[in-house]
Amino acid sequence: MQIPQLQFLLVCLTLAIAGCTSPEGNATAQDGNKQADEKSTSSKPDDKNKKHTNALVNETSPYLLLHAHNPVNWYGWNEESLKKAKDESKVIFLSIGYSSCHWCHVMERESFLDEEIAKILNDNFICIKVDREERPDVDAIYMNALNVISQGRGGWPLSMFLTPEGKPFFGMTYMPARDGDRGNTPGFLTLIKRVTEVWKADPATIRKDGDTVSKIVKERLEASYANNSVAINATWATDALTEMDSSFDKDHGGFGFSPSNPNRPKFPEPSNLEFLVDVVRRNPKQIDAKEKLTISLDHMAMGGIRDHMGGGFHRYSVDRFWKIPHFEKMLYDNGQLASVYAQAFELIPRPEYKQVTIEMLDFVLEELTSPEGGFYSALDAESEDEEGKYYRWSKQEIEDLIGNEPEYELFKNVYQIDREPNFEGKYYAPQFAKPIAEIAKERKLTLAEMDSKLSPLRKKLFDVRSKRPRPLLDTKILASWNGLMIRGFAEAGRVFKEKKYVDAAAQAANFVLEKLQKDGRLMRTYSSGEAKLNAYLDDYAFVIDGLISLYKATDDKAWLEKAAKLQAKQDELFWDDKAGGYFFTSNDHESLLARAKNPIDGARPSGISVSANNLVQLAKYLKKPEYKSKCEKTILSIAILLQRSPSSSPLMLKAVQAFLDEK
Q: What average pLDDT does the chain have?
């Protein structure tokens, strides 16, 4: 692969990439310079310098609104800003992030609030800011471009330089503002000066580099995995289980483990867990799948990735042990994990699985549910400009709060406060050393008795924590993420026979169908009372999945009818008539560098995988074989991937098994 020439022109910068860790990329979260973080200015709206206002003030995304008073003259991603770049023949500086991204906030404080940097950007670039959660299509294209330019690395904030025509020629993730601010890492100020010089001196070379990168990105994103001559194979699931062995952490659970890099960050990867649940459901004697599932669920429930005081899961752990999280809480993680833990309890009735699920759902009801019933997107990782400050504890704080000696002794022993601090050398993220059922047994208590002793102590900490300055809440409501959470509530309500959870799922489903639909089409996002942006495949697929789950929880066929209606619209807008399966964007969506398909199940499942599962279920419940035929074509649209690396798409394997059941 040809590395674009501009990388050689800028190689003297020796760029270091240290963005927010992403399951799609391999950048790792860095501790960074804490002193620099503490000195930087707050990025919260009330602390903004209001002498500056840019075009983002007209946006509805909470993340974009955070930047509306930066001295950088930001624009949104739209026809007008892209045309402005062409008309003025200026390089586009594209910054992509999201509200709960710690390093996005750090880069804003260090660079985008800096008057000197802002002036250079404003004079020489058209600066466009994108919320990756609103525009996953834009994010996917330019993240792929960064992978090409940096040979596989990625993360957020995603910082890309584009030709005036929108073609990427250089990029990185986080950079400190100036040379030497963080060790030997070069500064953003140096970079933008250098890009400005090169553009003025040799724009033709930069355009050539942009053409090269764009061609590679297009080829990657539009690669076909279809092979209609392949028969759907029942052994793909077995092959996937074997393939998972190489990355499974046998000691602590979870995937992505490598002996050569044992301490890399670890994500829950709910699609893998959902696949394992399905394997165990089909064959309770499948010991390998059962062990992978239970080791993972047990250790996640023990670790600091779970919020033991307030419920729910953080986005990922910065270590292999699930001990210290990157503290943001995402709706999509908790929606998927609620489904997984509830279904796991149905198969393996461990009381702690039920407790984890209930705590998770109650957290979502309390902190991520809008007055109208839709679900908000995320809670930030940081408060008061410090990552994890809202969640951490000193030993003295805990001792002072609990007070009573026997109760304090119990709490500190159970939650490992009797050990050395586990966070930043002086704080604690409370967690178990072993499964709580084992701790209870050692103390000759039932799990219920153990929890009755711990619950009031947790509440003392939770009540005090609730009075601290809170992390930023991202109040945008995304159709797809709501679909995942609707399913989580519906599955848990069905398994636990708990009406309030089914009701919450129904209320959110009605909200999505009423507020995020226009003229029979789904919209992507709802914020500030406005639904906007074309929905993507994931929005349709995940909402349909939620509606089907509601049918299974209520036996009310009205939910199936609504699912079928949305499925018809999805088929109309996203179906690939040539190769089968579904594109990520609709057939009337804005034209970008590529019209992609994404068959990989990552932090969120692929819309293609979920669609295949939806189709086979609709065929079964509505007795309509045309759905089954479409399911078969959808599976075969990624047949090459399933042959080469079946574990890349574990939820599609679940659809494969369901399809074969109905033969």
A: 91
